[in-house]
Amino acid sequence: MTLAPIDHALAEAHRRFTEANPASRRQFEANAESMPGGNTRSVLFYAPFPLTIARGEGAALWDADGHRYADFIAEYTAGVYGHSAPEIREAVIEAMQGGVNLTGHNLLEGRLARTIRERFPQVERLRFTNSGTEANLMALTAALHFTGRRRIVVFSGGYHGGVLGFGDQPLPTTVPFDFLVLPYNDAETARARIAEQASQIAAVLVEPMQGAAGCIPGQADFLRALREAATAAGALLIFDEVMTSRLGPRGLANELGIRADLTTLGKYIGGGMSFGAFGGRADVMAQFDPRTGALAHSGTFNNNVMTMAAGQAGLTQLFTPEAAGALAERGEAMRARLNALGAKDGVALQFTGVGSLMNAHFLQGEVRRVADLAAVDGRLRQLLFFHLLNAGIYTSPRGFVVLSLPLGDADIERYVGAIGGFIAEYRALLPAVG
């Protein structure tokens, strides 16, 4: 059977990849004997098998076969500091010398909590968790109990953790709360649906930019409409800033001038270690005060000293507000250059996003919601992924691009050059600008 040109190109990319990575293949096959699909984190799998990453340093990674890559995925935004930053490593070692599991309040948790409050002024009180998923679950729990209602407004394409994902309906692994799923960036529909169900709605949970859906920025009029509608309904507005808190000196919501009732944080804020936090209005968070509140919140490692130390070092020594603003500016400049390449060559390839996060899409026209991406040929994303690997660039098979602090100008030039090379090599397979 003769393959279509794009299938032939992808088969050839798979062949080259397999031949170049025998050690990763052996590792994957050995892991598959103990884990289904050799995998314990779904996003990391891709066919024919995923690379096994052996080590990292700065903005570089090495796989099991010894290939070096510039890291342009940065642990899906958790790795803003790169790999083994000395400041993070030294803080963790110092904390460990005083004991790892102390079974009590410790000297480090309050310090990090104060730093986060100073960084994000909408967070009047907060509590720590072990992940962004946990943070979002606890924020929703706080809203349900505070309002005495059960319905939660979310948005198609939203991702708030491993058990809080949404297409047009909740994904199969999503917890069975009472969800109302609405289209993203549709202010009129959101206002109408929230108003008509106001007495039932406890919370509106939204990302100021949808990350996993493809770096789709929330439009200011849409996010403001959610603030107004939630207030009118007596519901709580929850901004999931697990990813987007890195997109400005004090997070994306503060850049837009919109204040949520609750905010969830995670990823990089724990110094790249297991971390999450939820917080906001003092009256809502008072429910968790053991002296007076009604809600318990457990977690053996919520205040573990390694994460508390790493988070403090990261936010005060490395990812300061000034550094966050500078990284966002670098990302904006890079995205503009990438979009200019597609426009110059007349191919429908665009990079959406904000600041240091962006996503490649093979289509033209504005991307307002995940449904707008339905026409994208997923094979082109795969082809781009393997092309970038061949160029020594490690990124995401879905086209997600994440900048980290140690990435240098030469790394960015390499990425931009690789996109130009991809367009030149596969121009005949790419959709043209109409």
Q: What is the succession of H and E elements?
A: HHEEEHHEHEEHEEEHEHEEHHHEEHEEH
Mass-distribution shape = globular
Structural class by helix and strand composition? alpha/beta
Number of strands: 16
Number of helices: 13
Characterize the main sheet.
7 strands, mixed
Radius of gyration: 22 Å
- What is the helical fraction, as a range of percent? 25-40%
Strand line-up across the major sheet: 4-12-11-10-7-5-6
Overall pLDDT confidence:
97
Distance between the termini: 32 Å
Q: Which residues sit in consecutive blocks of at least 5 with pLDDT less than 50?
A: none
Name the beta content range.
15-25%
Question: Mind explaining what this structure looks like?
Answer:
The chain is of the alpha/beta class. 38% of the residues lie in helices and 16% in strands. Strand 2 and strand 3 form a beta hairpin. Helix 1 runs parallel beside helix 12 and helix 3 runs antiparallel to helix 10 (305-318). The protein starts with a helix and ends in an 8-residue tail after the last helix.
What's a quick, concise take on this entry?
The chain has 13 helices and 16 strands. The chain is α/β, with parallel strands linked by helices.
Write the layout of secondary structure elements.
Layout: H1 5-20, H2 22-31, E1 53-57, E2 60-63, E3 68-71, H3 86-96, H4 109-119, E4 125-129, H5 132-147, E5 151-155, E6 178-182, H6 187-196, E7 201-206, E8 209-210, E9 216-217, H7 220-233, E10 236-240, H8 252-256, E11 262-266, E12 276-280, H9 282-285, H10 305-318, H11 321-345, E13 350-354, E14 357-361, H12 378-390, E15 393-394, E16 400-402, H13 409-426
Parallel strand pairs: 3-15, 5-6, 5-7, 7-10, 10-11
Antiparallel strand pairs: 1-2, 2-3, 4-12, 8-9, 11-12, 13-14, 14-16
Helix pairs in contact: 1-12, 3-10, 4-10, 6-7, 11-13
